[in-house]
Design goal:
Radius of gyration: 13 Å
Strand content: under 5%
Largest sheet: none
Number of domains: 1
Order of helices and strands: HHH
Number of helices: 3
Keywords: Membrane, Transmembrane, Transmembrane helix
Structural class: mainly alpha
Shape: elongated
Distance between the termini: 18 Å
Oligomer: single chain
Protein name: DUF5698 domain-containing protein
Length: 68
C-alpha cells in the first residue's frame, strides 16, 4: 500500500515537473530546463526500479498511471 501511494505521488510530481519544463523552454531558460529534465529522468529510473522489484501484480503500474 505504501508503494502504491509513493508511485501515485511520484506520478503527480512528474506531471508537475513536465509542465514546468515546458514553461521553462518557452521562456528560453535552457539551464534550468535541463536541470528539471535531469530530475525527471532520475524519477523515471526510480519508478522503473520500484516496478521491476514489485512486479508481482499490475497494481504498481496502475497506481503510477493514476498519478499521471
Amino acid at each position: 500500500m505504501l508503494i502504491a501511494l509513493e508511485l501515485f505521488i511520484i506520478g503527480i510530481i512528474e506531471v508537475i515537473l513536465g509542465t514546468w519544463d515546458i514553461k521553462l523552454i518557452e521562456k528560453e531558460r535552457v539551464f534550468l530546463s535541463s536541470l528539471v529534465s535531469f530530475v525527471e529522468v532520475v524519477l523515471w529510473y526510480y519508478v522503473i526500479r520500484i516496478i521491476v522489484e514489485h512486479l508481482h501484480g499490475f497494481s504498481t503500474v496502475f497506481t503510477y498511471a493514476l498519478g499521471c
